[in-house]
Amino acid sequence: MKLERPPLEAFFSPRSLVVYGATDDADKVGGRVFSLLRRYGRPVYPIHSSLDLVAGSRVYGSARELPEVPDLAVLAVSAKVPLR
Known about the structure:
Strand content: 15-25%
Number of helices: 2
Number of domains: 1
Order of helices and strands: HEHEEEE
């Protein structure tokens, strides 16, 4: 079986990312992580249950709504929040 990409390449060099819990609030982990990852130069999709925009980017309600399957997801939410 030939792999499309070397193991762990998606982790160390993802083509796109998703941030669960992204926010505009730089004092929160989701805001800080989203802001820093956007500097990476790859698509970063914010997911949040109650926001429409984060840093000018459309916010998605769940990963099912994304225009592509991201290589990497960052979870920046409370352990009490159910993921969709």
